[in-house]
Amino acid sequence: MSELLLYSAGLDSFCAWHYLGHPPALYCDLRHRSRDHELAAIRTLAERHSIPLTISNELDLARWEAEDGIIPLRNVYFAMLASHRARTIWCAGVKGDHTADKSPHAFFEVSRMLTEFTEQPVRLDSPFWAMTKTDIVRWYLDQGLPVEDLLTTFSCLQPRSAGQHCGRCPSCLRRWIALANNGVEAPFAATPWEWPRVHDYYVPAMRDGIYPEHRSREFFTALATVGIHP
Ligand SMILES: [Zn+2]
Q1: Residue 210 falls within a domain, yes or no?
Q2: pLDDT in tens, the chain (230 residues)
Q3: How far, in Å, CA of 124 to CA of 122, rounded?
Q4: d(Cα 186, Cα 140) in Å, to the nearest integer?
Q5: How far away, in angstroms, is 189 Cα from ligand 1 center?
Q6: What is the tally of structural domains in the chain?
């Protein structure tokens, strides 16, 4: 296998699968809290779109999952598992991502490490470094692909029962912004724009330039779609 897409069940990796021309996909089940909801979403989408999907059960990292759903170094583990199977590894990082293990610099360094220790040229990269989540959803819709499938994707860090997105976590907020800015109404257990943290933290942080300019522009544009002009 020459290339592989790391598939997470979220919006970005589902769109990436279309964007990259339908490559083989790998989902890594780390026994984390959201796994049941993610597996339900990816199985549904894999069946609908005949996604050539492998599910890896090789690592149990539940012990290292933080309260907020983050597993440190997760993308490095994913890349190591993928490097047994392919030389080009796609992982859907988006414009402005700057977490420790998900950024152009992090992917460059992981590629360098895997190339050295496997003694094969390994490339970990994202097709979306120049696109925001809003741009990615716009691209997907411009292809005439079904909105229903976009809404079947799953990306909540604190899921409610039956796979409902909580509307009260950073991942839900980013999902809502990307969909709202494309005129797509998505179900959430609680409305993301009424999450107290939006007003207590995000509004001042977006104004103070803590986030990249495109992130704050898309944030305020999304709030305007529900009549909020802070
Ligand atoms: Zn959530």
Answers
A1: yes
A2: 699 999 999 999 999 999 999 999 999 999 999 999 999 999 999 999 999 999 999 999 999 999 988 899 999 999 999 999 999 999 999 998 888 999 999 999 999 999 999 999 999 999 999 999 999 999 999 999 999 999 999 999 888 877 799 999 999 999 999 999 999 999 999 999 999 999 999 999 999 999 999 999 999 999 999 999 99
A3: 7
A4: 16
A5: 9
A6: 2
Same domain, 62 and 111: yes
Both 12 and 108 in a single domain? yes
Integer angstrom CA distances of residue 215 from 30, 205, 218:
29, 11, 5
Q: Specify whether 7 is located in the same domain as 63.
A: yes
Instruction: Give the residue among 55, 135, 56, 60 at the shortest CA–CA distance from 95.
Output: 135
**How far, in Å, is the centroid of ligand 1 from the Cα of 164?**
8
CA distance 210 to 219: 13
| Domain that residue 67 falls in | 3-125
Using the mean position of ligand 1's atoms as its centre, give its distance from the Cα of residue 22 in Å.
28
Q: How far is the CA of 199 from the centre of ligand 1 (A)?
A: 17
Taking the centre of ligand 1 as the mean of its atom positions, its distance from the CA of residue 37, in whole angstroms, is 12
